[in-house]
Design brief:
Blueprint (H helix, E strand, L loop, with lengths): L1 H32 L2 E6 L6 E8 L3 E8 L2 H14 L7 E5 L4 E5 L3 E4 L8 H15 L12 H10 L7 H15 L5 E4 L8 E4 L2 E4 L5 E4 H5 L7 H6 L3 H15 L4 H21 L5 H10 L4
Antiparallel strand pairs: 1-2, 2-3, 3-5, 4-5, 6-8, 7-10, 8-9
């Protein structure tokens, strides 16, 4: 909980402090408004306050509150766009408190529990979620574009990211954006912890809502675990093999997917640095990936 509070204070300053102070009263108000009971905050909160609860007598739900109105608006638009196809369902919205009520995934284990020991099953499950999310070719609402996110690379400080890595990511980003493939509304942060088992089907949670190409979405796949990074001697070979398998499963160019993975790793490092975090992990992966470009 302390880490969550520190994250909010780092990002939102005095606004975040006020939001945290009001949180108990806000929770009480929403619990009354939406007839919620048995509220249990999730462990390991990062930037949103998330609570499991019961709605009425028998419906397991998740209550999610954000200090950031913009990110919540984008998430709501994404949930409304996906309409439960490959994604958890949105039940209620309270704009005043930047709060949403969601269906709770049951039993709720993450795709991470199948990875990497059940690699083939995990890849197929991941690919099925990607394809379900991209079922709608029509983009009916305004969403941020992928190039909006990637502006962070142009604004990144090379005191936190080695200049050669940053310049290569910017060059690749420009090449990729200048040769776009079909655009869809994407989840935007589709790593393994954001895919849960729900009533016999894998579904995504926490969509960011961004317009981009399928390879950008797939580049968020967790290709290497921290344990493998620490213990495996042939990490580069494992990484290359998994990239090719995922690319083939999703009918993507492995070259383009590899490029997007590199760009996203440097983007993640830039965001970590901007939020006063540690960018070392994505930078380690980027250095391993670099010879494969």
């Amino acid at each position: 909980m302390r880490e969550f509070e520190q994250n909010i204070m780092n990002l939102f300053g005095s606004q975040g402090k006020s939001w945290l102070q009001a949180l108990p009263a806000t929770l009480k108000k929403l619990a009354t408004e939406w007839k919620l009971s048995d509220l249990k905050p999730l462990p390991n909160l990062s930037y949103n306050f998330v609570v499991k609860a019961m709605h009425g007598q028998q419906l397991p739900v998740v209550l999610k509150l954000s200090c950031d109105a913009t990110s919540m608006r984008n998430e709501v638009k994404a949930l409304q766009h996906f309409q439960g196809h490959g994604c958890i369902k949105l039940l209620k919205i309270n704009w005043q408190h930047h709060a949403i009520l969601l269906e709770q995934a049951i039993p709720g284990q993450t795709l991470k529990t199948h990875y990497p020991l059940q690699f083939s099953e995990a890849v197929n499950a991941y690919a099925s979620v990607v394809e379900m999310l991209l079922h709608k070719p029509t983009i009916s609402q305004r969403f941020p574009m992928v190039h909006d996110w990637l502006k962070a690379l142009d604004e990144a400080c090379n005191s936190h990211i080695p200049n050669s890595l940053l310049l290569q990511a910017i060059a690749l980003k420009n090449d990729l954006l200048n040769s776009p493939e079909s655009y869809f509304v994407l989840h935007g942060d589709l790593h393994h912890d954001n895919i849960l088992m729900h009533k016999g089907q894998w579904v995504a949670i926490d969509p960011k809502g961004i317009v981009g190409e399928k390879a950008f979405e797939a580049a968020a796949f967790d290709f290497i675990t921290r344990a493998e990074l620490a213990n495996e001697a042939d990490v580069k070979d494992i990484l290359q093999m998994r990239i090719h398998i995922l690319a083939n499963t999703l009918n993507l160019s492995p070259v383009r997917l590899t490029q997007w993975i590199f760009v996203r790793l440097i983007l993640a490092a830039a965001w970590f640095a901007e939020d006063k975090g540690d960018p070392s992990y994505p930078l380690i992966l980027a250095r391993i990936l670099r010879p494969l470009l």
